[in-house]
Each structure stands twice: as C-alpha cells, then as structure tokens.
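Example complex used in Figure S2.
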Amino acid sequence: MSVREAIEAGTLPDRVWIYSNYHCNLECAYCLTESSPRSRRRSLDAVSMIAVAHEAAELGFREIGVTGGEPFLRRDLAATIAAMAAILPVTVLTNATQFSGDRIAMTDPLVGLPVRLQISLDAPDPEPNDELRGPDNFAKVVDAVPRLVERGLRVRIATTVEPGRLSETDHRRLCELHRTWGIDDDDHLVRPVLREGRADATGMGARFERDQLPPELAVAEHGAFWSAFGPTIRGDVADTHLLITRTILPLATPASALLRLVEGRPQGADANIGIR
Ligand code: SF4
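Predicted assembly (276 residues):
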C-alpha cells in the first residue's frame, strides 16, 4: 500500500505536524517540550518547512499542523505559513501572547488564507489558567482572541487539563466565553496533559503507550516522529522513543517508515489520545 492509498483508506492520518522551533516566552507547568525563553531554538528553517508542505501534498496528505515552542516568536513565521497555506491548509498552535496592540499586524499575511490559529486557554478564570501558564496569560488571550476573529482569522480554543479534571461548570463557562467571540463548539477542543517533558518533572498528566497516539507524522529539526506528541524534550535532551527516522526530507522516507510501523501494529491497537 502506498502512503497516498493509506491516507485515503484512513490507515494513516492525513495531517503532517511541523515543529517550527522549541523556544517560548512562557514556561507552562505541563509543557511537553520543556519550552521556555532559555530553550535551545531547534528551529526548522523556512525552506525546509515549505518543502515539507510541498512533499506532503505530493504524497497525499491534506493538512499541515505547526507547533513548537511558540511559533510566532519567529519573525519569518507568518510569511512561511502563508507560503505553506498556498499548498495545504495549515493549523498553527500558539499561545497568542505575541499579538498585543499593533503587534497583531504580524498576522496580516494570514488573513483570507486557509489558516487556523489554535490558541490555548485552560480555564474560564484567570487564576487557575495563569497558575499553569504564567502571569497575565488569561488577560492576554482574552484580549487577543476577539481581535484575531475580528480580522477574519479562524481561531480554535484548546483547553489542556489533567485527565478528568475539567468540571462540567468550567467546561460550560469556557464554552460561553468562546461563543461570545463567535467561536463554535466544534472549534473548542479539550485534551489531556500527557506525562512527557516538564509534565513528567512536575508529576502531571497521563502515561501513555505509543499505540494510543494517532500515527500522525511529525517532523522537527532533529528527526521525524510518530505523533505530534513524539518530538518531546526531557532534561534538555530530545526524546527518541517515538523517533521514526533522523531523515525528514525527502518526506517519503519517514512517511513510508511510519506506514510500515502502522501496518505492523497488532490487530485492535486503537489510538484514543488526540491533539486534533
Ligand atoms: S505549552 Fe506551549 S505556550 Fe506553554 S511553554 Fe510549552 S510551548 Fe510555550
């Protein structure tokens, strides 16, 4: 079976994730990549990011996800995303803290393109959100989101919580908040903290096995991995337990290797942890 046939049959997910960089202005308690302002950047250059999008489209993938670190710390990010969005639709995960005041203009190149910004907001109140994500994070997000929506950008809200810890009341209040911004329930996702990276050090999150993770291809500067949760960092060292190949381009190399792994899985192995 070719990669294209596997995607069409639903054997392989149709999205490729790209880790654009690993540094971040925040230092969240559960961060899978131990990102912080002091992190090594491990940036994947723009030419490689655009090449991944081109080759992903040629192989039959239908979407690109971009994550980090905080991607918008890169000055070339918006132009790079715009170039990729001319090839495939792009979802960018961001903490939305770089869009204060006039700085929101950095999103100009993305307006009108098939681009979604997926923004983290973990609680309907500042205190519990900021306890995990840093001082004033809640205020910055609730300032940025409506202004991004007003500019015509599609925004999704991602709530990351300890498994089973989001109360019905808090879930309802988060939904009331995103609906006031014109964001539908379909664009609000709740996902579990996984015990990786800093979450491991802080004793947070659920442990998991590889086959619980959707076999989405994820590429970073240092290799290609099984799942967007694969290219994690622990003690400033890149985790390799979900590494597929050190080669990322040509993309057919890790994509074919991922397909062989998926085809070799035991019957009944079902992914049940998603990043959407
Ligand atoms: S979880 Fe996201 S916003 Fe928080 S430190 Fe990690 S990369 Fe930055």
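The chain is about 30% helix and 20% strand. The domain at 3-263 is CATH 3.20.20.70 (TIM Barrel).
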